[in-house]
């Protein structure tokens, strides 16, 4: 799981849609070399067009709130401006090794699950369950032998919610959506809110409901109540 309030964006890969089993290997989670300068979130609302024949205008009928997308650009730089990430001692292969590690974790078919890995983006208050849907790499600087020294990687991630979470979300007014959760090492309040509600932005309301003066670094073993989204907790 992501560390509490990481100062650098991390991308953690999981083999299951419930985000409980991490992909094994030293490259997981992947820590970005340089934090994105910005990121964008896009949500669209789908409607069915119910315009009757001969009517002067459409009468759209709500269908559903579509998946949310997050897009940003990552920079890989092996010119020596930043120290080698992780356990690397040098940039002998330029940015190739870093991009290969990122691609293997996010954009490669995992034969055990017959799909790419499920991912969680974590950066401060951002906790986003998702899958990678697009990746475009632009190499901009090279060694004399052609080894790439700098690259810009534009990525888009689409939110992912398991069937079990969707089914639970369909009955938000039911009493059984109240949860008593014991905080585990590595858990953050935004991450737990995203798991339970599908939206990390409820962390402040949950903190207030539990009388927490500081939502950061909740000690492992702490028991928290996550109330239904209806009523006073919404």
Q: Main sheet, how many strands, which sense, barrel?
A: 7 strands, antiparallel
Low-confidence stretches: 170-176
* Cα-based radius of gyration, to the nearest Å: 21 Å
First-residue to last-residue Cα separation: 27 Å
Please provide the count of β strands.
Answer: 9
Structure classification: alpha+beta
What is the strand content? Answer: 25-35%
Instruction: Determine the mean pLDDT.
Output: 82
Give me the side-by-side strand order of the main sheet: 2-1-5-6-7-4-3
Helix percent band: 10-25%
What is the global morphology? globular
SSE pattern, N- to C-terminal: EEEEHEEEHEHHE
Task: Count the DSSP helices.
Answer: 4
What's this entry about, in short?
By secondary structure, the protein is of the alpha+beta class. It has helices spanning 96-106, 163-169, 189-197, 203-209, and strands spanning 10-14, 30-31, 39-48, 61-77, 118-123, 126-142, 148-159, 179-182, 223-226.
Structure description:
There is one protein chain. With 234 residues, the protein is of the alpha+beta class. Helices cover 15% and strands 33% of the residues. The strands form two sheets. A seven-stranded antiparallel sheet has the order 2-1-5-6-7-4-3.
Secondary structure elements and their pairing?
Elements: E1 10-14, E2 30-31, E3 39-48, E4 61-77, H1 96-106, E5 118-123, E6 126-142, E7 148-159, H2 163-169, E8 179-182, H3 189-197, H4 203-209, E9 223-226
Antiparallel strand pairs: 1-2, 1-5, 3-4, 4-7, 5-6, 6-7, 8-9
